[in-house]
Design brief:
By secondary structure, this protein is of the alpha/beta class. The chain is built from nine helices and 14 strands.
Length: 356
């Protein structure tokens, strides 16, 4: 039985990436060594890291005013590392709480300074994006989560601000062309759209650093990581390698414009099917629906378990909603083929026919 991987993360990877990574585990580039064995300060790994950094800058169209880092800890570490580097004691940062990850980020930031939650969509269970809000004049930066993996919402137009804009882009990075220069700092766990679990991408505009008085532990200091070229300590070599291969694949497939084209086709098909079948319902505001993570429910809650069981039997992996939300979640990242969405939609139609 063919499996269809709708996992929210770690998630599906492109088949060519898996094949190349698998070969490298046994023999990396005919060196006689596994990618798991090579030293992180060898020319072999430096070439990997250089290509990964160069690919990020190419896809984001960034100049040398930005630095690209590949760090440990995933996006969750950035919840504290961002304010630790950018927010002095007594200073204020603005946060948008559009879901579980934005909420966690704001709570971590509150350990380092004052946090003002300028947008909070919990009144409707985070089923929409609040687009109009006031930012305190003394705010040092504004933090958003560009795509809410759990709740199924996404920023389709970013807020305009005259202060640094910070974004957690873990679940929609490299899925569409974006004016990345709008942002002063972007971070993203690789395991959803740009590689394997274990590495975190951080893109920083250099002019926002070095402006606080706080002493920062060396391993948490962005400037120290920049000076060390992401090699301050042993990096997650294999995870960086898989990210490099995934970035190479995105470029070879046509870049971000092609990723957006495919994403739109998949999301349009899924949402059109969802809206046409009364047995399913979605609370998400249509204009704010995520193209990466479609979240929906069964109109009759008693049908949820049978639907999920049917999905399991037919090889639909990872479609059960997040544990605090429930329902169904279909993640449609770059590597997911349209054919998987088509087969899932056919399942939805057949289930609706038999349960209407």
């Amino acid at each position: 039985m063919k499996l269809h991987n709708f996992n929210s993360g770690p998630s599906i990877l492109p088949q060519p990436v898996l094949e190349e990574a698998a070969k490298a585990i046994l023999n990396f580039n005919d060196t006689g060594l596994s990618i798991l064995e090579i030293g992180h300060r060898t020319p072999w790994f430096q070439d990997i890291l250089n290509e990964a950094v160069s690919s990020v800058k190419q896809l984001m169209q960034l100049d040398d005013s930005y630095e690209v880092l590949f760090l440990h800890g995933g996006a969750t570490t950035q919840f504290m590392q961002v304010p630790m580097n950018l927010l002095d004691d007594g200073e204020t940062a603005a946060y948008c709480d559009n879901g579980i990850w934005g909420s966690k980020a704001s709570k971590e930031a509150a350990l380092f300074g004052n946090v003002v939650v300028v947008a909070d969509t919990s009144d409707k269970k985070h089923s929409y994006i609040q687009k109009h809000f006031d930012i305190p004049e003394n705010a040092r930066y504004l933090h958003i989560t560009s795509n809410n993996t759990v709740e199924g919402t996404q920023w389709h137009q970013y807020p305009d601000t005259n202060i640094p804009l910070i974004a957690d882009m873990s679940s929609d990075i490299f899925s569409r062309p974006v004016d990345f220069k709008k942002f002063s700092l972007i971070y993203a766990g690789a395991q959803k759209n740009m590689g394997a679990a274990g590495v975190n991408l951080v893109v920083i505009k250099k002019d926002i650093l070095g402006k606080i008085k706080r002493k920062i532990p060396t391993i948490m200091n962005y400037q120290k990581h920049i000076e060390a070229g992401s090699l301050m300590n042993t990096p997650p070599v294999f995870a960086v390698y898989v990210s490099m291969l995934t970035l190479r694949w995105i470029i070879a497939e046509g870049g971000l414009a092609e990723m957006e084209k495919r994403s739109t086709e998949k999301a349009d098909l899924l949402y059109h099917t969802l809206d046409s079948l009364p047995v399913f319902t979605s609370p998400i505001a249509k204009e704010d629906r995520s193209q990466m993570n479609a979240v929906f429910f069964l109109s009759n809650p008693e049908l949820e378990a049978p639907f999920l069981e049917r999905c399991k039997k037919e090889g639909m992996i990872g479609v059960k909603g997040y544990r605090t939300v429930g329902g169904v979640r279909v993640s449609m990242y770059n590597a997911l083929p349209l054919s998987s969405v088509q087969i899932f939609c056919n399942l939805m139609k057949d289930f609706a026919l038999k349960n209407s």
